[in-house]
Structure formats: structure tokens, C-alpha cells
Write a structure and sequence with these properties.
This protein is mostly loops. It contains no helices and no strands.
């Protein structure tokens, strides 16, 4: 779905930290009943959980 992995710096609450390159959307549409997976490569210091939010429009 994204052109590159989404990176979140240690201690940051989002991926929009300064100096972090943002990937672009490679697949603009998600088909009905599509499976989306999230791979966590390494947990951060004091990691407590992961929240994923998808924002978009239903077409």
C-alpha cells in the first residue's frame, strides 16, 4: 500500500517527525474485504501498544 516502510522514531508519537522521509501511497484503493497487515520491526523503548488508523472515503 505504501512505497516504502513507515518509520516512527523512538519517542515520537507519529511518523511525521522532522527528518523522517514520508512514503507515498502506491495503491490508492483498497478492495472490499482486503486484508491489511502491519509488521512491527522493533518495539520502541517503553512501547505499550500500537494504534493504526485508516482515514479515507468509501467508494
Amino acid at each position: 500500500m505504501l512505497s516504502a516502510p513507515l518509520l516512527i522514531k523512538p519517542g515520537a508519537l507519529s511518523s511525521r517527525a522532522e527528518g523522517t522521509a514520508q512514503p507515498v501511497i502506491a495503491a490508492p484503493a483498497i478492495p472490499d474485504d482486503a486484508e491489511i497487515s502491519v509488521d512491527v520491526l522493533a518495539e520502541g523503548m517503553g512501547a505499550r501498544g500500537l494504534r493504526v488508523m485508516l482515514v479515507g472515503n468509501y467508494a
